[in-house]
Structure formats: structure tokens, C-alpha cells
Amino acid sequence: MPKQTAIDDSAAATRKITDALRRAEHRVVIAKAPPGAGKTTTMRRVTRTLLDDGLPVVPIVVQTNAQADDLATALAAEGIRTGRFVSEGGEPEARTRAASAPGLVVDRQLSGLQGCEAIVAPADKWVYCNNPRAAAAPPHYDLALIDEAYQMRGDNLFRVANLFDRALAVGDPGQLDPFTIADTRRFEGVPLGPLETAAGTLELSYPDAPVVELPVSWRLPASAVDLVRSAFYELDFTSATDHDERELHVDRLDIGSPADAAVTTMARTGWAYLELSAAFTTRTDSGMVTAVADAATALFARNAQTRCEQNQGGIPLVGGRVAVGAAHTDQVAALRREFQQRLAAGGPAQLADVVVDTANRLQGREFDVTVVWHPLAGRRDATAFHLEAGRLCVLLSRHRHGCIVVGREGVGDLLDAHPTESNVFLNLPADCPDGWEANHAVLTHLLRHRVAG
């Protein structure tokens, strides 16, 4: 069972949020959350409290259609009459979800959501309310909840700010910044620039805003919390479980291959660093593709099973509960081809369900075990993209039981040869964490769990 202190501390943090909103002394309240802090649960509880206090409707801003569907379904399951405000593209999936969720209403117009206690939509849909060609005048609400506020761009916040008098912004400050294909150099060093996160914009605009830190990660095992917290966060948080609460067990013997040794090490300690020999390679390094696929295959070949507070009797590890993460889409494509080839050759059937994707697309998701292609493996240089702390944080914080990182020798030398070169702007807060320092901290930890590849 989760630690009682974790349950109590989490409930206390939620009360701090609702108390700050009830006092209405500030236009903004910010809640900072570590990975797996139960943000959806927090949003549900805050919404219910606000409704019980007499707020007629709670508008909720999220960042993607998938997040909107998940949250709307969760709110409806709590008995909250929920409206899913949709665009044409998001409507089919939203209606499919609503079919099995009594109390969830889907409509492209706010007029069709009259009587709903909560209305959920991505930021881009709320922006539509300010369209001069919209059929109705923009709505206005006393208070809005903004979920994943560190994934939301500042320009989208500016475009919906007139709809709400006050806001609660909830998000994970350690994740990837909002993505754009635009040239961002013109905005560097500009306070409140359009590419600043919504949460960062609110912090700069309202420096006296109450900040509540969610104190528990319900996802990360005790073996991962210390690394993730020290390398990527200024928050103080703990794991909801003790070291002996979760276990990954493998039945079949370790036959001595590097992949088997990595699985054995990960099962014992929660981490493994499968390190191949040093080499400068192309981005879709065939040796890395093979090693990553070997590690994933070994999990199923050895009949891995997990035991935790949710399944105390233990259950087999299935493909859908394993993720393979990489930095680039071409690396993901190469890994997917390798998995298909192994399936065609009679490999473990579970490989068909393994989620293989980039850090950007794995963000916000949770798995039992992850296998990670180290972003700096085989590189001659360490660019800002590959040193970005948020990318590495996402890759290393998706798991509930264990993580295998696959890399090549020489990452430490590469970091020493390419110290951070990002500009420092005197009128803006310094980036925290620094990507170069975070990579060094992670490498130091991983080398304690090294397996020669």
C-alpha cells in the first residue's frame, strides 16, 4: 500500500490549493507537480470542491485532445456533469469516449453544453471563442483551471486570458517546453515572449502568486525519485511507495548476454545502463537499434512479472506496459522496423504492443518498464537539442518499476568537450535545471548500474 505519509501530504497539498482559490486574494495560483504526481486526481478534487462551494461552472484548459478526453471522462466518472468542447477533428474520438461515460456531453458549440458543471477543451479550442466570426460572444468565467501549464505556450495564454478573471495553473516544470517549428531566436531574452510557457508567464506576471508544490510521485519507484528530483527539479518530493513495495521478477535464467545482464540489473536495482563500445555513428546507429531491441525482447523472453501496491499478487509484464523512447523520429522508425522484423521471425508476441516513440509523444504517459536510447549515444557533438534537460527527464521518468538506458562509451568525454553554450539573459530567470549539469548527474548515476554491451 502507498505510504500513509504520502496520502496525507498529497491531501494537504490539495487543501492548500483549494484554500488559496477560496480566499480569492490572488488572480493566479500555481501548482507545481513532479512526474506522476496525480495531476488528474488533483484537478478532479479541486473541481468538485469549487462546485460544492457554489461555482456554477468550471472551465478547464488542457493542451491536447487526448488530455481533454481523459480528463473529461475522469470528471464524468466522479458524477460531475461534464462538457467536452470539441473541434471537428477531435469530435469522433470524444463521442466514442462519451458513449461509455454517462454524464459526458460533447458539442462543438458552448451553447450545446448548457447545464454542464465542468467544460473541458484544449487551449486552441478556447482560443476559437475569441474568433470574430464565432456565432456567439466570448464567454466569461470567474475561474479557470489550466492543466499541463508548462506545455502551454504563452501566446495561447494571452489569447484566452480575457475569458477568465482568475486561474489555477497546474503542471510539471521538468518536462519539455512547448514545441514549435518557428525560428525562436527573435524571442530569446524577451520577458513574456510568446514561446515562454504559460506557467512561466504567470509566474513573471504575478510574482506574489501562491505556489503549491505537489509532494508525492505516485508513479516513480523509490529507486528513481532521488535521481529524478536532484537532476531535474527544484521541487522536494518523495515516492508514494517504499523500496520493497514494488518488485520486477524474471523467471528464466540469465544466459549471459548483455541484454540479459541489463534486465537482471534493472530487476534488482531499478536501473541498468547497457553501454556499447565507443563509436561515432549515424543517428540511426544499427548497433544501438539492435541493443535496444535486444533489451526489450529479453524482458518477455524471461517472463518478467511485476508486483506492486496495485497488484500485490503479481502479474505478467505485457507489451502495452513497456515503452521504448528515443530523441528522434528516424530512430523511432528504425526501432519499429526492427521490432516488426523480430515478430516476423517468431520473436515474442508482446513486442507488437510495445510503445515505441519520441520523448515528446511519451510525455504524460506511464509504463511499468522503459527502455531508453540515450540522446548522446554515438554523437560527435552535444547540441542544445540533445542536452535539453526536459527531454532526458521525460525519458527517465515514465516508469513505475525499472528503466534500461542504452548508450555508448564516451558520453562523459563528450559532455566535457561541449560545455553548455546557451546565452544568459540578465532580465530572465536562469534555466533550471541546466541541461549539461543534468546530463552529468544522470551519467554519474547510470555508471553505477553499468552493463558492458
UniProtKB/TrEMBL annotation:
This is AAA domain-containing protein. PANTHER family: DNA-BINDING PROTEIN SMUBP-2, DNA2/NAM7 HELICASE FAMILY MEMBER. InterPro entries: Coronavir_polyprotein_1ab, DNA2/NAM7-like_C, P-loop_NTPase. Keywords: ATP-binding, Helicase, Hydrolase, Nucleotide-binding. It comes from Geodermatophilus ruber. One of its GO terms (molecular function) is hydrolase activity. Residues 209-408 form the DNA2/NAM7 helicase-like C-terminal domain. Transmembrane segments: none annotated. It comes from the Bacteria. SUPFAM superfamilies: P-loop containing nucleoside triphosphate hydrolases. The lineage of its organism: Bacteria, Bacillati, Actinomycetota, Actinomycetes, Geodermatophilales. Gene3D superfamilies: P-loop containing nucleotide triphosphate hydrolases. The keyword Signal does not apply.
